[in-house]
Every structure is written in structure tokens, then in C-alpha cells.
Write a structure and sequence with these properties.
five-stranded antiparallel beta sheet
Length: 493
């Protein structure tokens, strides 16, 4: 079964319940636990998006290539890591609303809007030489000015937007403009940072009595704990390429699941866990639906996990499937392998594919930008994997700004404030975010109320319910009147 669903005019504004286009969720229906799978190399930090910090954000004027101008608040977001830890991020998708309380996942540049951005390495340099990596004092001394946190954050964000979204971003504050100019003039290309933790591939297969793998560890941590997820058949263990049982691993190590001969057909999972700081410049994409892409500017020590699944059978076809995001080609790569001794035939998007024993096939699946997908691949012995997500590989193109919305008839979906926020209100229509509060614990920052003025702050508006009501009245009275309302925003980029 395969279905592809476009989002029509609600592009990038519909609050979908699907996983992000850079993350696919895989579930194995054979005996054994479910496995979250985004591509070969499942893993990485997961974090919940907080709000924009009042004390570490400021006004920025955006000038598009066509000369049109609009204003926005830009600066640092706080994110709370699943399992413990905090992240501080900037936006690299200027025109897309940010969804408060959405869950995000760490990905490589090739799985984000940076995949075709020749300035990605310069953005990393800006992060390494901007705020908060360098203090306001250090940056001020370089520039001969007295920078505040809000000026330093706005100046750094403006420099990033200039390179990530192909605009001219000019902070309101004079000293912040000096920082933006300095960062853009000095920036040079740096190499992409390493993943915090991933396993590749995330699905392997074979026969009982064999070592199933290899699964390669990719990490910036010194030590990684590895184990078999509870619930696996007795005797299944994690081993290295010599067959020796292991409980820890390092970057580049190859791991296997050793399944004793005679073990009944089934599945097991290999789990990896580490405590490390995520490297600056790693991209973060939403796994709860459309929301702007972020880039890491700072990290505390965080808990990172990754998993890989193994399937085995005594005879017949023994399938394994992973889905890789291919932003360069605009779609997915379904990688299907068969470690059994019989052919395996499955259906994908109305087409049957046969993978012979010992064979691996890579099947391209074309998708338009922002299209959603949901498909299930089945096999013998109850094998079933479902993948769903949204292809999100580009920054939003110029058009209606985050501060401009068209009234919608979709039901309201207000977000719930996180425990770290205080006060504020939630946005009223789909695509709006919680407004009025900050996430608090950003680098050197304090919790405060964002908003004020007429700056667009993507994703939220206290005026949205009223706007929707006015729209409904105009439809009844005016018979199709078209109008545009400029909204005040309460949660920023």
C-alpha cells in the first residue's frame, strides 16, 4: 500500500500529525518491539521546540530579491532534549512558521534544506564565531561596541538568514548590524559536523546461527553503550566482527546481532546510547508536522539513542527495508534486501517488485516538495514495515510572509505551553504556535515575554481567532469578499 497526499494551499502551514519529511517511522510487525527508522542511520537527538527568548532576540528587517521588505523577530530558540539536556538553535527556514512544542530530530545536511546550499559551511563558521559560542563581551571587543544579548543574537541570526534564505537581513539595532556585517565578511566554509549518534543501516536480516549485520556506529561521543533491547529471544547478543560479545562501542565500530542456531524465526533490536554534546551546525527538522528547520548554536550534555532492527528466518525470504531521504533527487530511496533463499515480492505504489535471495534493490520514489507519504511493505512470516512522513528539503519560497495569513475553515489546534513557559496564549488556527512566552533556559538568557510591536514572529497570533470570526462573517455577508489582515505575532523565528 502506498499513498501520497499533497497539502494544497495549506503548504507549510497545516499542522500535520505526520512525521517530518526527513524522518520516516518504521514498524516491524513480527515478534519484537517497534523500531523508529528514518533512513540508514536511525538515531540522533530528539528535542521539543520551546519559544523565542526575549532577552536573546531582536528586530530584523528582511529585504527580498524583488525589493519587498518585511520585519521579523529573530534570535535563539530553546529546545528540551528527550532524555535530558538543552539545545539552542537558530532558524534556517525564514518564511515557515515555528511550531511551539513540536518534536524535532537531528539530521545531516543532506536531509535538510542545506543539502543544496553552497553556503552551508559558511553558516557553520558564523555559528562557531557568533553568539552564543562567543560571549557578548568577546564579540563587542572585536567590533569596538557594547553588545547586549538581544543584539548579539539578532545580529547572528540575520547573518545566518542572509545565507540560508537568500535575503538581505538587517537588524534594527546599529551594533547588531555591525555584527552581521562582520560575520558575513569573515565567514569561510567549514566541514559538516558529525552526527551525535547514528547506526547504519537501521535494518538487517539473515538466518539463525549467523551474525546479522554489520551495523556501523557513527558518533562524536567517546563511548557508546550497546545492548539487545529486552524481549529478544534467549541467547541473542551484540558482538563485534570477531564474534566477541560487546557492551560498548566507538565511532566506526561494526556491530552484529548473534542469533543462536535453532532460534525460532523472529526479530530483535540493537540499542545504542551515549551522552554527548551535539556539534554546532547540526540541522533539526520537525517530526510532528510542518515547522521551520533549525540549526544548532549550542548544546548541553544530552542523552542520545539509536536503534537497528534484525530479522531472521530458517528458510524462505528474509527481508529488510530502510528508507533513505534523497533531497538531491526530490524523493525517497526505498532500500529492500533479501537475505533468504527464496524470492520476495512486495507492492509499492501500485507496482510489484521482486528481490531475489541475496539481492538488494534501491527503488526511487519521487515526491514533490512538502508532499506527505504513507506506505506499508509486507513480507513472509508477518513482516510489515510502515513508513510515513513529509518531504521537506527546501526553504519556503518568497510569498505571503509568516505575518500574513488567509482565514481558514480548518479547526483550531492550539498548542500546549511547555512547563518551562509562563503566561502567554496559544495561536488559534492550524499553523499557529503558542505565543507570548519564551523557553527560558537559553545560553545566558532568562525567561521573558516575547512579542510587542508589529514584528512578524512566525507561527502565532493572539488575533487569529478574531480574524477567523471576521472572515466567516464576511463570507456570509459579502459573498466571497477577499481581504488580507496583517497579524501581530507572539512567537518568533
Amino acid at each position: 500500500m502506498f499513498s501520497v497526499r499533497g497539502r494544497g494551499t495549506a503548504r507549510r502551514l497545516a499542522a500535520a500529525t505526520l512525521v517530518s519529511g526527513l524522518v520516516a517511522a518504521g514498524t516491524i510487525a513480527m515478534a519484537g518491539p517497534a523500531l523508529a527508522d528514518d533512513a540508514p542511520g536511525a538515531g540522533g537527538v530528539k528535542a521539543k521546540l520551546g519559544n523565542l527568548s526575549k532577552d536573546e532576540s531582536g528586530g530584523v528587517e528582511i529585504t527580498e530579491k524583488n525589493g519587498s521588505k518585511w520585519s521579523v523577530n529573530g534570535g535563539l530558540f530553546n529546545m528540551q532534549v528527550e532524555g535530558g539536556g538543552s539545545l539552542f538553535t537558530y532558524c534556517i527556514d525564514l518564511r515557515t512558521p515555528a511550531k511551539h512544542d513540536f518534536d524535532y530530530k537531528e539530521v545531516g545536511w543532506d536531509q535538510s534544506s542545506l543539502h543544496n546550499n553552497e553556503n552551508a559551511g559558511k553558516i557553520l563558521w558564523i555559528l562557531e564565531n557568533g553568539y552564543p559560542k562567543l560571549s557578548t563581551k568577546d564579540l563587542g571587543e572585536k567590533l569596538g561596541v557594547d553588545l547586549s544579548k538581544s543584539e548579539a543574537a539578532a545580529g547572528t541570526q540575520a547573518a545566518i538568514w542572509t545565507l540560508s534564505d537568500d535575503v538581505t537581513a538587517k537588524p534594527d539595532a546599529k551594533d547588531a548590524r555591525k555584527l552581521t556585517k562582520y560575520l558575513l565578511e569573515k565567514a569561510t566554509k567549514l566541514e559538516e559536523p558529525k552526527a551525535s549518534l547514528s547506526l547504519s543501516p537501521s535494518s538487517v536480516a539473515g538466518k539463525a546461527g549467523e551474525k546479522l549485520g554489520p551495523v556501523t556506529v557513527n558518533t562524536n561521543a567517546k563511548d557508546v553503550k550497546v545492548s539487545v533491547v529486552p524481549g529478544a529471544p534467549e541467547g541473542v547478543k551484540v558482538v563485534d566482527k570477531t564474534g566477541a560479545a560487546v557492551t560498548t562501542a566507538a565511532n566506526g565500530d561494526e556491530l552484529f546481532l548473534d542469533v543462536p542456531a535453532g532460534t525460532a524465526d523472529g526479530t530483535a533490536e540493537l540499542a545504542a546510547e551515549a551522552t554527548t554534546k551535539v556539534q554546532l551546525g547540526r540541522a533539526f527538522v520537525s517530526i510532528d508536522g510542518p515547522s521551520q528547520t533549525l540549526i544548532l548554536a549550542g548544546s548541553s550534555e544530552s542523552t542520545v539513542t539509536a536503534k537497528a532492527a534484525a530479522t531472521w528466518a530458517k528458510k524462505g525470504a528474509v527481508p529488510a527495508v530502510t528508507v533513505a531521504k534523497d533531497c538531491a533527487k526530490g524523493g525517497l530511496e526505498v532500500i529492500a534486501s533479501n537475505e533468504g533463499d527464496e524470492d520476495w515480492t512486495f507492492d509499492l505504489k501500485g507496482t510489484s517488485y521482486t528481490v531475489a535471495g541475496g539481492e538488494t534493490k534501491t527503488i526511487p520514489v519521487k515526491l514533490a516538495e512538502d508532499e506527505a507519504y504513507n506506505f506499508t511493505i509486507t513480507g513472509p512470516n508477518g513482516f510489515e514495515q510502515t513508513f510515513e512522513g513529509v518531504l521537506d528539503c527546501e526553504t519556503a519560497t518568497p510569498g505571503p510572509k509568516p505575518s500574513e495569513t488567509t482565514p481558514t475553515t480548518e479547526p483550531s489546534t492550539p498548542a500546549s505551553p511547555s512547563p518551562s513557559t509562563t503566561g502567554g496564549t496559544t495561536g488559534g488556527t492550524t499553523g499557529d504556535t503558542t505565543g507570548g512566552t519564551t523557553g527560558g533556559d537559553t545560553a545566558g538568557g532568562t525567561t521573558g515575554t516575547t512579542g510587542g510591536g508589529d514584528l512578524a514572529e512566525t507561527g502565532s497570533s493572539n488575533a487569529t481567532p478574531m480574524i477567523a470570526g471576521i472572515a466567516a462573517a464576511l463570507v456570509v455577508v459579502g459573498g466571497g469578499a477577499v481581504f488580507f489582515l496583517r497579524k501581530k505575532k507572539a512567537t518568533g523565528h
